[in-house]
Design goal:
The structure is a homodimer of 257-residue chains.
Chain A lengths: L4 H7 L6 H10 L4 E3 L4 E3 L7 E7 L2 E6 L5 E7 L4 E2 L12 E4 L3 E7 L3 H7 L1 H27 L2 H19 L6 E3 L4 H8 L3 H13 L3 E4 L2 E4 L2 H8 L15 H4 L12
Antiparallel strand pairs in A: 1-8, 2-7, 3-6, 3-8, 4-5, 4-7, 9-11, 10-11
Helix pairs in contact in A: 1-2, 4-5, 5-7, 5-8, 6-7
Chain A binds a DNA duplex (30 and 30 nucleotides) through helix 7.
Chain lengths: 257, 257
DNA sequence: CGAGGTGTTGAACTTGGTCAAAAGTCGTGG
DNA sequence: CCACGACTTTTGACCAAGTTCAACACCTCG
């Protein structure tokens, strides 16, 4: 049970009761290995399972009539994938692996047990979904109204802020295992302009690149430039049905458990 | 109780048990009148209440460092406003009235009662949040990768599809009580180009305009042009904790009750 | 009738897209 | 260990879509 992906993930946010932990652990039967680039689920397929990412990066995307691709989400180790599709019978997005990855699937139908037996977990799932929503809304704001450099800046900040959920000690350097084309598809730029924007950031002394590792040399300046909000650092658990399994610590929990 | 906004709204999706209906009705104490353009809540303010829109249109927006405005959501009569902010202590977006409006506020803190006592309602709230998420992700896709005409087309389709939730008989004509500048801020265009795109749509014979009423003359062509998905028409309730208050009809409910 | 907000149209300008070629990187097999 | 080929990144030149600015028309509501 200690090595259940789900328990580990949600335990970051709430102190789970033994009951809840066991209930979650039972959802996972096994893990699955994915080679890089492989398609895990196509848009339009029936939604039967959700996934927790154990290793590697995944991305969710769709195509437009004109053939271009839009990447809607990137998922990192520890992420819960597929919450959006819970509301629909068929997946709204395709899901694929950026790099080699391991995922732990669990059946969508198991969600009802969580909603019935654990109000606190339900509230947590709800909140996690809403965090995703806020992140998307931030990205929309930047994409609609800012230039290439700002978009790339925002993207990089978002990546570190997500990586810090599970690795608070990451510092300012991290590896970015994706091509510039994929990055461009996430923020609505061509690969060419992603390259130019990254060069520009380097020129300004804001980032340093080596192989596919990035270091943010002036995170403050970057945050100021795009008015960045970290949506992951802290969520409001004060209204959660507390009697049941919320940690009895501060009314609002830091995510960096 | 019959005139509770919340009961009316959620009753569209689920057959509410008398208990649930009463619980919801108790949340609302009164309604509030808003003049056009008035600010209901500023970004950064503590989140204490959610709202159900009874009359008029609202919008949620934020500003960028460069001063431009991004409209993230438009809310219509029957909409539940503020779900996103439930996860945070402070509002991520400002909320204002497009036209004169009436809203029914209810306290965020009351949500815990729903999560504790009604798994079905919890699952419904969760799903409504995820629908919003899918809508945003659709808009992102269009904005990142399509031209002005496609963006406006998509926006208009999204508006009718939302209006049809509560007014299935709306046909293809509806009034659009917003300025072209506001519309542009929603889809990342200048007021000038919104005007040009609307003219272009008219030229093509896809829409007709009179005053601020719009008629879609060729909805099929419009849908095909942007590969439109209606996220509101149907949600998957088959996994809902059914024993409690889900309608015992089809496993998946049409939203057009 | 006048004023302010809203919508339309034209012209110059800017940003990012596209195409193409060159340079770098990585993994594989000899 | 090196060489090859495929993929990725970079750079340059040209092009297209949308922005900005400005003038004007149009309503609507005093």
């Amino acid at each position: 049970m200690a090595n259940s992906c789900l328990v580990e993930k949600l335990g970051h946010y709430l102190r789970l009761s033994p009951n809840d932990a066991e209930r979650l652990a039972r959802l996972e039967h096994e893990s699955e290995e994915l080679p890089a680039q492989s398609l895990l689920r196509a848009a339009g397929a029936p939604v039967r399972r959700l996934y927790v990412v154990k290793r590697g990066w995944l991305y969710e995307y769709s195509h437009l009539p004109n053939g271009s691709r839009q990447v809607a989400h990137i998922h990192y180790p520890g992420d819960l994938v597929g919450l959006t599709d819970v509301a629909f019978e068929r997946a709204t997005l395709s899901l694929a692996a950026v790099s080699d990855a391991t995922v732990c699937p669990f059946p969508k139908s198991a969600l009802d047990q969580i909603f019935i037996h654990s109000p606190a977990l339900s509230a947590l799932l709800f909140s996690l979904g809403m965090v995703e929503h806020a992140v998307l809304s931030d990205r929309l704001r930047i994409m609609a109204r800012s230039g290439a450099v700002e978009r790339v800046t925002h993207f990089l900040l978002e990546v570190v802020s997500r990586l810090r959920i599970t690795h608070p000690d990451i510092g300012e350097g991290f590896s970015l295992p994706m091509t510039q084309e994929l990055l461009g598809d996430a923020i609505g730029l061509s690969n060419v302009y992603v390259s130019r924007a990254l060069s520009e950031l380097q020129q300004r002394g804001w980032i340093e690149r080596r192989a596919r590792r990035i270091r943010l040399l002036n995170e403050d300046a970057m945050r100021a430039a795009v008015d960045f909000n970290d949506r992951h650092f802290r969520i409001d658990t004060s209204w959660f049905p507390g009697a049941l399994s919320v940690s009895e610590g501060a009314p609002s929990l830091s995510l960096r458990a």
